[in-house]
Amino acid sequence: MSSLGPTTGIKYGMVIDLDKCTGCGTCSVACLTENNVYVLEDESDKVRSITWLRVYRINNGQPYPQTKVAYIPRPCMQCDNHPPCVSVCPPTATTKDEIGGIVSQIPTRCIGCRYCVAACPYHARYFNWFDPWPLYKKHIKQMTNAFNPDVAPRMRGVVEKCTFCHHRLMAAKERTYAEGLKEIPEEYYQTACTQACPAGAITFGDLNNPKHKVHRLLAEREKDAFRLLEKLGTEPKVYYLTTQKWIREKADNYLDVPKGTGD
Amino acid sequence: MEAELIPQGLQRTSFRNFCLWQLPWLALLTFGGLGALLCLGLGLNQTAMNDYFAFGVWIVFDLSVIALGAGAFFTGFLTYIVGKKELKSIINLAVIIGFICYSGAIAMLGVDIGQPLRGWFIFWHANVHSMLTEVSFCITCYLMVLTIEFLPNILEQRQLNKVPEFHFFAHNLHEIMFLFAAAGTFLSFFHQGSLGGMFGVLYARPFAARAMFSIWPTTFPLFILSAIASGPCFTLIIVWLLEKIGRKKLVKTEAKQLLAKIAGILLAVYVAAKLVDTYFWVTGPASDAGFNLGDFYRAGPYGAWTLFLELGFLGVVPAVLLNIPAVRKAEGALILACFLNCAGIVMNRFVMTVVTLAIPVMPFEKFLGYLPTWQEWAIALAIIGYGGLVISLAYRYLPVFPHERELNG
Fold first, then answer.
1. Distance from CA of B379 to the nearest CA of A (A)
2. Which residues of chain A from 222 to 251 reach within 8 Å of chain B, CB to CB?
3. Between chains, do A127 and B44 touch, taking CB under 8 Å as contact?
4. The domain over range A12-249 is classified in CATH as 3.30.70.20
5. pLDDT given at position A3
6. Domain range for B112
7. What pTM was estimated for this model as a whole?
8. Residue from A50, A82, A113 to probe the interface with B (highest B Cβ count within 10 Å)
9. Which of B51, B55, B356 is the closest to A126 by Cβ?
10. Alpha helices in B114-252 (DSSP H)
11. Any idea what the CATH number is for the domain that residue B105 is in?
């Protein structure tokens, strides 16, 4: 197993500017298309539908006209410090990469015990409750054209999650090697959601590399940056930016701030 | 012909009555088989579990029966290691109950995992950091130990025992049973603890997370304590049921009284430790994560009543009752106290499993409820059918109670 402690060297992460996010959901759609995410026959079953990148709608709990609404896109947080899901997995089907720090998932090794699903406080892990094959078979011609050949579809009974488009990292590595470069250029490895966001709210790159935009953004807007549930100590590699205090307060639990019950 | 299979000198009902008696258990098993077939064939979408309730009634049943089956290892420990010889009167039944509980739990887990054919990956690609890996290893090994412990009793069956090889093998197994009792105790301590550890280590789920001592959260010793406090009481309940149904005395009073007394002391220690743990949980990990006690119960179907029911009515009350000698001596009161004790442990397992998952960690998530489907109930209840079937078969054909003849002179 790789080291579960903080990543040194290359550390891939994401910065999402919530003040730019319009909640359009393009990131979510791009993600599921890129990663061959299975679509349920009944997508209204929201506690079973698979959304690697889910967009939450939150409000400030105030009555109209003081009501304020914001959207929080939530990919896997790629926890950097002892990811809750990694150490619990009995057959080592999920690991944290030593280079890059991406929390990976190996569906072909997953036994479907769902202990990782229970361990994740962000609900970023999804179990395949249904068999995707009947649907694939029904629309095989259209689906063959729609599939991304770089990502294997998952089978029934295993857990899946956002991998920061890990297959793109593999492709970027090959391209970097072929071109004789020493490090992967920022533009060679970008996630599907980053590229799809029409508002440019998502930025992706190496958090430890001063040449990367994510690093500069966090340095420039340090006071606006926060992460989800920071108190737990999971050290997510997904950062959010906002100038609005009420949104930052909604991102964690405080003993003296009343909690909501969702939007 | 069939009468020749019944242990010599013991009175049992007619074969026809026995067959009729087995029908409800078989029906429960068949019902469970149907549920299992649907879940294995069509997938776990047949259940009410989802990405929020990753665990459901099966894990509650698994944890409960494994705790209630702890009577096997603990009675074995007291009989063969501590040397409480009077418990020989009840040890066979305790082993059979343990065997049923563990084999039933493993069978249920076989349906519960999404890819049952990959179950062996736990052993092949074992992640030694996972509490569930430890549980899997220990439970599997302990089921083997239980099978060995059960074996002499099977070989002592009237006809089988006529085969000299079986007779001597059973005798020799009895001679070295203390070794298996020790192995069972070692394995059980670890898997009972690891089952608790499974939840205590969920440091990102503040309702379950507990303070750590080295690599073990406090739920580790608490689960061991609660299992050895409730397991003997569950064995006493089954003895009581068998005595009532069979209308005869099966186990010596001193054996029952000793088990009840030990269970009472252990339960009192457990409840006291659990209350202290609750205080340190609220002021420690929960508070650090930004949760007051009330936050866990502010909405949703599982309110503060679960806390009071578990610790109060099903915790403190049986702990007090079992430590009063007069209560232990009065059969009805003893069984009531045993029942409350066992119900408290089931409640604890329910709270740790289902309530943990019902409580949102992200402030903008919602409290959710979970209601199992009939397929889930069918599979969970099948373990009762399986238990009824095996105990009935053992009671009829095996010399389970060594003092039955003497007690019913």
1. 17
2. 228-229, 231-234, 250-251
3. yes
4. yes
5. 65
6. 2-401
7. 0.94
8. A113
9. B51
10. 121-124, 131-155, 164-175, 177-200, 219-246
11. 1.20.1630.10
DSSP state of B150: H
| Domain regions of chain A by residue span | 12-249
Is the separation of the CB atoms in A212 and A206 below 8 Å? yes
Structure tokens belonging to residue B254: 């001193």
The reported pLDDT for the residue numbered B215 is 81
- Domain membership of residue B406 (yes or no) is no
Residues in chain B with pLDDT values less than 50: none
Per the domain annotation, does B164 fall within a domain? Answer: yes
Judge whether B362 is closer than 8 Å to chain A, CB to CB.
yes
**Chain A, window 158-187: residues with a beta carbon less than 8 angstroms from a chain B beta carbon:** 158-159
Is residue B409 in some structural domain? no
Residue of A nearest to B135 (CA): A90
Does residue B163 sit at the A interface (CB-CB below 8 Å)?
no
Are A134 and A39 spatial neighbours (Cβ–Cβ below 8 Å)?
A: no
Residue-wise DSSP of A43-61: TT-TTTS--SSEEEEEE-S
User: Any chain B CB within 8 A of the CB of A156?
Assistant: yes
Q: Point out the residue among B49, B114, B289 whose CB comes nearest to the CB of A232.
A: B289
- The pLDDT value recorded for residue A1 is 45
Residue A15 DSSP SS3: strand
Using an 8 Å Cβ cutoff, are B53 and B358 in contact?
yes
Nearest residue of A to residue B291 by CA position?
Answer: A255
Q: In this structure, is residue B145 part of a structural domain? A: yes
Whether pLDDT at A69 is above 60: yes
- Closest alpha carbon to B238 in B380, B94, B382: B94
State the amino acid at position A237 in one-letter form.
K
Alpha carbons B279 and B286: distance in angstroms, whole number: 10
Task: Give the per-residue pLDDT at A260.
Answer: 62
Q: How large is the ipTM? A: 0.93
What is the number of domains present in chain B?
A: 1
pLDDT surpasses 60 at A263: no
Position A184 pLDDT exceeds 80: yes
**Mind listing the pLDDT tens digit for each residue in A25-40?**
999 999 999 999 988 8
* Pick from B44, B121, B367: CB nearest A157: B44
- For the cut 50, the answer to whether the pLDDT of residue A234 exceeds it is yes
